Amino acid sequence: KQEVTQIPAALSVPEGENLVLNCSFTDSAIYNLQWFRQDPGKGLTSLLLIQSSQREQTSGRLNASLDKSSGRSTLYIAASQPGDSATYLCAVPSAGSYQLTFGKGTKLSVIP
Amino acid sequence: ETGVTQTPRHLVMGMTNKKSLKCEQHLGHNAMYWYKQSAKKPLELMFVYNFKEQTENNSVPSRFSPECPNSSHLFLHLHTLQPEDSALYLCASSPLLGTQETQYFGPGTRLLVL
């Protein structure tokens, strides 16, 4: 059974700092990995989908990397802004399944 | 706006009540999902519908009853719930059912069972 772990559970940084969020998964037979953002009291917004054949995916100030063999992904946020404050979730489908397994998320606070 | 709407946004109900949650997607998608998000737990997939047919029920108690009358609408009927069912219920949709499909989420219904 796939398990997804995100560390740290919470992170507070001053505005302008670069930061890295971590995600690890137990079953490396994945097709892709997604990073989502969730604002308080709201649904999830997909940020990046990185295919298993890719090592990186970029969107603006966000860069996601995937190391399938070690079961790890990182989400790099450059020049953080207060508007980046949210909970960041990673999710993976297991081999042969379309079901997504989610981590518990990292709650990010960017202090002005 | 993701193109997925949910109503109501907040709901308080007693254990003997019957209520329904509604989800509507305006994206032309064919797969729809119900998720439960409890405090300090990962999102849990509850039900999956593909072209109006239920394809997945992840051992959800029968007090939760889904309904998908067409590819654009999804309901979750609730009856005789327990306080531990209090959570954020999220609806999502995707163009097709598959591992390569990004899911688009609604804002959720915050449910409190007293």
Secondary-structure topology with pairs:
The complex is a heterodimer of chains A (112) and B (114).
Chain A: E1 4-7, E2 10-14, E3 19-25, E4 32-38, E5 44-51, E6 56-59, E7 62-67, E8 72-77, E9 86-93, E10 100-102, E11 106-111
Parallel strand pairs in A: 2-11
Antiparallel strand pairs in A: 1-3, 3-8, 4-5, 4-9, 6-7, 7-8, 9-10, 9-11
Chain B: E1 4-7, E2 10-13, E3 18-25, E4 31-37, E5 44-50, E6 53-57, E7 64-70, E8 73-79, E9 87-94, E10 104-105, E11 109-113
Parallel strand pairs in B: 2-11
Antiparallel strand pairs in B: 1-3, 3-8, 4-5, 4-9, 5-6, 7-8, 9-10, 9-11
Molecular structure report:
The complex is a heterodimer of chains A (112) and B (114). With 112 residues, chain A is an all-beta fold. The radius of gyration of chain A is 13 Å and the shape is globular. The model of chain A has no long low-confidence stretch (mean pLDDT 93). In chain A, the strands form 2 sheets. In chain A, strands 2, 4, 5, 9, 10 and 11 form a 6-stranded mixed beta sheet that branches. In chain A, strands 1-3-8-7-6 form a 5-stranded antiparallel beta sheet, with no helix packed on it. Chain A has strands spanning 4-7, 10-14, 19-25, 32-38, 44-51, 56-59, 62-67, 72-77, 86-93, 100-102, 106-111. In chain A, 0% of the residues lie in helices and 57% in strands. Chain B has 114 residues and is mainly beta. Chain B has strands at residues 4-7, 10-13, 18-25, 31-37, 44-50, 53-57, 64-70, 73-79, 87-94, 104-105, 109-113. In chain B, strands 2, 4, 5, 6, 9, 10 and 11 form a 7-stranded mixed beta sheet that branches. The mean pLDDT of chain B is 92. Chains A and B meet through strand 4, strand 5, strand 9 and strand 10 of A and strand 10 of B.
